[in-house]
Amino acid sequence: MLIIFFLEKDLPEEQRISVEKRLKESSLVNNVRYVSTEQALVRFKQNFPELQGVIENIEINPFPASFETNLAEENLSPETILRFIQVMKDMDGIEDAQFNRDWVERMESLSRLAQAIGLFLGGILALASFFIISNVIRLNVFARRDEIEILRLVGGTNLYIRVPFILEGVILGILGGAVSLALLFLLVKFFPLYLGASLGALNDIINFRYLSLTQISLLIAGSVIIGLLGSLSSLARFLRV
Fold it and tell me: Is 95 in the same domain as 112?
């Protein structure tokens, strides 16, 4: 994505260098090109030769100096792009910025829609996992009724009888999280290869990335919580010790 930052007229060289340094130091920027007023005028004459007469009637050069920047190839969120542009526009020496606002706003809307769909599907899967684990624990409670009755007769405590089922639910949750991580890894690894060049221009927008370590930890923690809640719910209803 190309972003052009127009500089103020008669900007001192020290301030221009400061703006250029700020752009180059940003991790979001891939490269920076300085375009002087003379270069901008020459480029306009080359691109629009039919309008040269209009420019010749103007005694001054109407084109400001600018920095042309390309964002890094990594998949940047629209919020990050807009925040970066606003920070640069607030910097002394920059008068305005030109970029494809419609594209950014559409990507922002698409990102919000994808997040909403992800939360909705994630909620459904979490509920499904909860009920599956709860039913598995319930079936195990019924299958071990005789063993539970013997434990009661020999003085087994509530905690002693319940802990194995609770651990089973937690283990089922962890296994479910691990399987989902493995399937997601295969999807991220091989789905782009299956699509090949069919994405066309979308290859520059859609970037298949695996989860970060923090996201993996949160997913496993969520799986443990779902397994724990599922087992506790089933024990509360079907195992009265």
Answer: no
Query: Which residue has tokens 């539970």?
Result: 148
Q: Which helix (H) or strand (E) holds 119?
A: helix 101-143
Query: Which three-class secondary structure state does DSSP give residue 163?
Result: helix
- Rg of the chain's alpha carbons, rounded to an integer? 30
The secondary element (H helix, E strand) that includes residue 217 is: helix 213-238
- Residue range(s) defining the domain that contains residue 52: 2-99
Residue 202 to residues 41, 124, 188, 192: CA-CA distances in angstroms?
34, 29, 16, 11
Q: What share of the chain is helix, strand, coil (3-state, %, to 5)?
A: 70, 10, 20
Q: Look at the block and give the residue holding tokens 């964002």.
A: 71
Please state the pTM of the whole predicted model: 0.55
The DSSP code for 59 is S
Q: Give Dmax over CA atoms of the chain in angstroms.
A: 106
Going 111 to 116 to 121 to 123, the CA torsion angle's sign is: positive
Please check whether residue 207 is in contact with residue 114, taking contact to mean a CB–CB distance below 8 angstroms: no
* Residue 158, token pair as written in the block: 């509530």
Element (H, E) at 183: helix 158-195
- Categorize the per-residue pLDDT at 208 as very low, low, confident or very high, splitting at 50, 70 and 90: low
pLDDT tier at 175, thresholds 50, 70, 90:
very high
How many domains is the chain built from?
Answer: 2
Q: Does 120 lie in the same domain as 67?
A: no
Average model confidence (pLDDT) across the chain: 81
Whether 149 has a pLDDT exceeding 60, the answer reads yes
Spatial CA neighbour of 69 closest among 21, 37, 32, 94: 32
